[in-house]
Design brief:
Blueprint: E1 18-19, H1 29-54, H2 65-71, H3 76-99, E2 105-106, H4 109-123, H5 127-133, H6 138-145, H7 150-156, E3 165-169, E4 175-179, H8 183-222, H9 224-229, H10 250-267, H11 272-289, H12 300-303, H13 308-314, H14 331-336, H15 346-363, H16 371-379, H17 385-390, H18 394-400, H19 408-422, H20 429-451, H21 457-460, H22 462-474
Antiparallel strand pairs: 1-2, 3-4
């Protein structure tokens, strides 16, 4: 029987590879990776569309149905058509990407875990030298621990475990005594293999995708040709909704979304199943960022600082050159100074809400000539929006006046409005002219309200207060300031 000293490290186990069974029977994993993000997109989008049409959770809406109807410059048919086109492109690219990936096997897990345990054993050899730099005699520490904490003594001795052995057989069937791993080394190796490494891979993939999308997205806004040729199409949705999340020019959709996620997948070396969850998670996050709701029980609204309220500012004419980050975190916006700095935006939202409701009322006047019309008008949840804005008490009027940004915020607003002008075919000057008229009417309403006090103004002002809380809350504001920033004034 051979002596264990002939082995420097515990020997690695043998393994045999076996094809990995499909996660879903009869559907290969590579095909399921293509189908799952598309299914997730439409299931989640249809859920939000359902609560839209049923008017559920209206207290958490960032925009009213009237705004969706009157402020957007693209039909729902065009949105669905372009999303389907992008998903076809996404499927083709995903198929090609899958052809570059090897088939998945299992059976090597114990071997890979043992490799990490070997690395942990080798890393322990540096402990005596590291401790010597701070004046600690590791040999003396190990000697003092050997009787009470044998494993700890072996660690301080530089990974020397002479008391841990195992019996193995060589190719000739001869029994050999070989060193073995400590239980803590195997536990740490399993934690690394099953949890830490995948977590690092997903974190790195998120960083790569966020970085790719931030700089390309920002370039689409900074370059006039890129914006007017490609990206302006997405911004015809001034009031985003869930199934419009991937409404883009086909080339932009390929470059920004499909290619960005594919590069992240390749850079971090994900497996097919890891890619399945990464692509699906990215899709769900993108839909949630465009859903138009600040739902307090939606975890995606709170896990990251990038949410529906944050991205909604980017879709407004006054914030279009801010809040470029997507789909996960906002670190690039904050690091490079492109986060919205204009303070509380609830007054701007209220103005747009009232103006949109007025347009609907003008196009669909209710004559009250029959009882059913009168009943419907009373049940309309946004029917009193105009009066709510007119009859505010004087102490709330300051909150209604749109905040005039100064300094950097003024530059952001000016740049955003200049970009809106560039999309001549769908909006341009007409959009800004409409907003100027809305601003004028809002100021007139405030002047009239100063001469028309209402005893019920506190109750009527509740809708504005609720709107402010939804917008500020969904933007991760703190102490009343949107995005955690106080007003610039």
């Amino acid at each position: 029987m051979s002596n264990s000293t002939s082995f420097e490290l515990p020997p690695l186990p043998h393994y045999a590879l076996t094809p990995l069974p499909s996660l879903v029977p009869l559907i290969p994993d590579k095909l399921f990776t293509l189908l799952l993000p598309i299914a997730a997109y439409w299931i989640l989008s249809l859920f939000f569309h359902w609560i839209d049409t049923k008017d559920y959770f209206s207290q958490y809406r960032l925009h009213t149905p009237a705004e969706v109807l009157k402020r957007n410059h693209v039909s729902r048919y065009e949105v669905v058509r372009d999303v389907v086109i992008q998903q076809v492109i996404q499927t083709v690219v995903g198929t090609l990407l899958g052809m570059t990936e090897p088939d998945d096997f299992f059976g090597k897990e114990e071997y890979d875990i043992a490799v990490w345990a070997s690395r942990i054993r080798i890393a322990q050899r540096s402990i005596p030298r590291l401790l010597s730099f701070v004046g600690v005699n590791s040999a003396g520490v190990a000697k003092s621990l050997i009787s009470s904490h044998l494993t700890m003594a072996s660690v301080f001795a530089g990974g020397q475990y002479p008391w841990l052995t195992q019996t193995i057989s060589n190719a000739g069937g001869e029994a050999l005594i070989a060193p073995a791993f400590a239980s803590w080394e195997m536990l740490a190796a399993k934690a690394l293999y099953w949890y830490l490494i995948p977590a690092v891979q997903f974190a790195l993939a998120i960083f790569v995708e966020d970085t790719w999308q931030y700089f390309l997205h920002r370039a689409m806004h900074m370059n006039k040709w890129l914006y007017t040729t490609f990206h302006s199409r997405h911004h015809r949705l001034y009031v985003p909704y869930a199934f419009g999340a991937l409404y883009n020019h086909p080339f932009e959709g390929f470059l920004l979304d499909t290619l960005g996620a594919s590069i992240a997948f390749k850079v971090v070396g994900m497996s097919t199943r890891q890619g399945m969850w990464f692509f699906t998670g990215s899709t769900i996050k993108t839909v949630d960022d465009h859903c138009g709701y600040a739902l307090p029980w939606d975890p995606l609204q709170h896990i990251t600082s990038n949410n529906a309220g944050y991205h909604d500012v980017h879709h407004q004419s006054w914030g279009i050159k801010t809040n470029f980050s997507q789909p996960f975190f906002t670190f690039w916006d904050r690091f490079l100074g492109t986060v919205w700095t204009g303070g509380d935006v609830s007054a701007r939202y209220e103005r747009s809400r009232v103006a949109a409701q007025r347009k609907v009322a003008q196009e669909n006047p209710i004559t009250h000539s029959n009882p059913s019309d009168s009943i419907d008008s009373q049940l309309e949840p946004y029917q009193n929006g105009i009066e709510d804005a007119k009859l505010l008490s004087p102490d709330l009027q300051a909150n209604v006046r749109p905040c005039v940004p100064v300094g950097k915020a003024q530059q952001q607003a000016a740049g955003s409005r200049e970009q809106v002008m560039e999309d001549i075919e769908y909006g341009g000057a007409n959009i800004l002219a409409e907003e100027a008229e809305e601003e004028k009417e809002a100021k007139l309403a405030i002047r009239r309200s100063s001469r028309k006090r209402s005893s019920g103004s506190t109750v009527q002002a509740g809708s504005l207060k609720g709107l402010r809380e939804r917008v500020n809350g969904s933007l991760h504001g703190r102490s009343g300031g949107v995005l955690g920033l106080e007003s610039s004034q």
